[in-house]
Amino acid sequence: MSLLQNNFPTFLQGFGYTLLSSIIALIISMILGTFFAILQILPQKWAQKIGNVYVQVFRNIPLLIITFFFFLVVAKVIPMNGFAAGTIALSLYTSAFIAETVRAGILSVDNGQMEGARANGLSFGQSMRYIILPQAFKIALPSLGNQFINLVKNSSILAFVGGLDLMYQGNMVAATTFDTFTTYIVVAIFYLVITLPLSYYMQNLERRLKHAA
Amino acid sequence: MVTLGIFDAFTPQNVQYLLGGLGVTVGVSVISVILSFIAGSIIGIVQFERIPYFSTFVGTINNIIRNLPLLLIIFFVYFALPKLGIHLPIFWATVVAMSTFESSMLAEIVRGGLESIDKGQFEGARANGLTNIQTMVYIVLPQAYKKMIPPIISQLISLVKDTSLAMGIVLSEMTYRGQIVYAQNSTYIIPVLIAITLVYFLLNYGLSLIAKWFDRRLA
C-alpha cells in the first residue's frame, strides 16, 4: 500500500496520458474509419480498392511496427515525441478495424433507406449523413465500444517509445521500487477502472439489442 | 555502391538472423494458439453450462484478463511471477502470457458459438439417450466449432501481430531482431522496417484469406 501512496502522482499522470491518448486516437480513428468505410461502399471501383487496401494493410501489420515507423522514420522529418508517434499509430491501426465495423453497419441498413432518401431529393452525401450513418452507427455501437476497449488496452504500446502512459510509468515504478508484483497489480487495477465497466456496459447493450431485434 | 543503399541491410547474415526471428514468432504463435484453444474451450464451456457460483467465478476472472493489455500480462508473467517463485525462461513466459490472454478471448468465441446452437439439438440428443458429456462432444461442439473457424483464425492473426510485444521482455522474435539489425547502421531503419512489415503482412493476409474462404464455404 505504501507503494501506491508514494507513487500515486506518477500512476495518476500515467493514467491521464493513457486516457488522453485513447480519446484522441478514438476521435481520429472514428473519422478515418468512417471515411474509409464509405470509400469501400462507393460505386467507383478505384475508391473501393483504396479503401480495401488501407484496411487490409493496417489490420495485418503489428501496431508496434507502425509505432516504430512514426517514431524512428517520420519523426526525423516532422519532429514529434513518443506520445504523438504512438497516438498517431494507434489512430491509424484502430481506424482499419473501425472501418470494417462501420462498413458492416452501413451494409446492414436496408437498401430502401438510401433509395427513399435519394427519391426525396437528397444528394448521396446528404443521404449518407442524415439517413444512413445514424442508423449504421446505432447498429455498430456494441462493436465500436469493443474497439474502444481494445484501443485503451493497445495504448500500452506507448511504453515502447517513452509515451509517459500508465504502462510506461508502471515500468518506471517497478524499476525503482523493485516491487514488480505490487506495481503491476496496481497498473492492472488502473486499466480495469476504464475497461471493465465499459465491457459490462457493452455486453448489456449487445444483449438488449439482440432482444429488441 | 552508394546507389544500392536500400539493399545494403540485407546481407546473408542479417537475412538469416531475421528469418530465425520469424521462426520464433511463428513458434510462439502456433504453441499459444493450440494451448489457448484447449483452455479457451474449457473456460467457454464452463461459462455456457452455468454451474452455480463456479461459472460466475470463472467468468469474472475471464473478464478481468480480457480487459487487461496483453503487454501488462507479458510483463507480469516475466517480471512479477518470479516474486512468487515461478521463474520462466523468456520464450515460455511469452507463451504463458499469450496463451492466458488469448484463451480468455477464445472463451468468449466458444461461449458465443455454443449459444448460437439451437436448443433442439441438446434436447434431441438427450432424448436419444446421450449423456450430457456425449451431447457436448458428439453433437454440439462439432457444430459450434465449424462456426468458430473464422473468428479463431482472426485470433491467430492477432497472436502473430502481438508476438511483437514480447520484445518488451527481449524475446528474440522478428521485430526485436529487426531492431538489432538497424542498430548497426541508421540507414538500415527504413528498409528493415519495410521488410518486416511485408513479412507480417503476407503471413496475416494469407491467414485472413483462409478465414474468408471458410466464411464463404460455411455461409
TrEMBL record, chain A:
- Compartment annotation: Cell membrane
Tell me a GO biological process for this protein. amino acid transport
Q: Where are the transmembrane segments?
A: 20-42, 63-93, 181-201
Principal subcellular localisation of the protein: membrane
Q: Which GO terms describe its cellular component?
A: ATP-binding cassette (ABC) transporter complex
Q: CDD domains annotated for this entry? A: TM_PBP2 (cd06261)
The protein here is known as: Amino acid ABC transporter permease
Organism, as annotated = Leuconostoc litchii
TrEMBL record, chain B:
- Sorted alphabetically, which keywords does the UniProt record give? Cell membrane, Membrane, Transmembrane, Transmembrane helix, Transport
Q: Which InterPro entries match?
A: AA_ABC_transptr_permease_3TM, ArtM/GltK/GlnP/TcyL/YhdX-like, MetI-like, MetI-like_sf
The question of whether Cell membrane is a record keyword is answered with yes
Naming one, the record's GO cellular component terms include: ATP-binding cassette (ABC) transporter complex
Q: How does it sit in the membrane?
A: Multi-pass membrane protein
Do you know which Pfam families this protein is assigned to? BPD_transp_1
Q: Which SUPFAM superfamilies match?
A: MetI-like
According to the entry, every stretch annotated as the ABC transmembrane type-1 domain falls at 22-211
Highest taxon of the source?
Bacteria
Q: What subcellular compartments does it reside in?
A: Cell membrane
Family, according to the entry, reads as follows: Belongs to the binding-protein-dependent transport system permease family.
Designated name of the protein: Amino acid ABC transporter permease
Say which species the protein is native to: Leuconostoc litchii
